[in-house]
Structures are given as C-alpha cells and as structure tokens.
Amino acid sequence: MAVCCAGAATDRMRRIAWLTGHRENDPRAQARLLAFQQGLEKLGWTLTRNLQIDYRWDMNDAERARAAAADVLRLAPDVILANNSIALAALQQATRTLPIIFVTVIEPVGAHHVARLIDDVQKIAL
Predict the structure, then answer these.
(1) In angstroms, rounded to a whole number, what is the distance separating the alpha carbons of residues 91 and 88?
(2) What distance in Å separates the CA atoms of residue 101 and residue 82, rounded to the nearest whole number?
(3) Which domains does the chain have, with CATH numbers?
(4) What confidence tens digit (pLDDT) does each residue in 41-90 have?
(5) Which pTM was predicted?
(6) To 10 degrees, what angle do helices 85-94 and 62-74 make?
C-alpha cells in the first residue's frame, strides 16, 4: 500500500482495486475487509472521503479474472490488491505500470509471478 498510504492522507480521492477469490457473502472475507478498512482509517484514509475501493469478488476463473482486471484498470486505480494467483496472473497480463500488492498467493516465485518477493521492476510486492 506504499503508493496509497505512505505519508499523511490527503483530501484527494485515491482508488484501490481489490480482486479476490472469496465470495462477497463469505463472513471471513467480510471480516478481513472490515479489518483492512479499519486499518486504513487509522492512517487517515476514509471511504467516500478520500478513498474508493473497487471490489471484484469470486476471481477463481481465469476468464472472469481477466475481464475484471480490464474493468478495474479502466477505473484508474492508484494501487491494486490481488488476493489469489488467478487474479494476480490476470493483472500481470493486463498491466506492468500499476503497483500490485498480492496476498495469499502460493509460491509466487515458483509460479513465476515475480523473480523475488520484492520486485521493484515489475511493481509487484508481497
């Protein structure tokens, strides 16, 4: 979240795209989402005031993930969060310029998502 959250929050609206393999009605996913939003609020980022989060749920199919990646890129996010390997692969195919933060991706180096866990060249980080 370095692009979005480094330094003090501003009044300028920032946009996060979040592609996740979870279903929207999954209680555990909702709990994680709430914790994420609360953490951002502690840093001064408040939904509808200076932060917009665009969610794409159930990214467990490559075609669906590619369509969602193209869709969120049209929204011009400041940073993208990928919650599984399928979403990460789709985002990597769709952009090489926007920062992508990924979580819960199995063997990201072995799957050739990144050359190492911190890869400044590809703008992808764990």
Answers:
(1) 5
(2) 6
(3) 14-125 (3.40.50.2300)
(4) 999 999 999 999 999 999 999 999 999 999 999 999 999 999 988 999 89
(5) 0.78
(6) 50
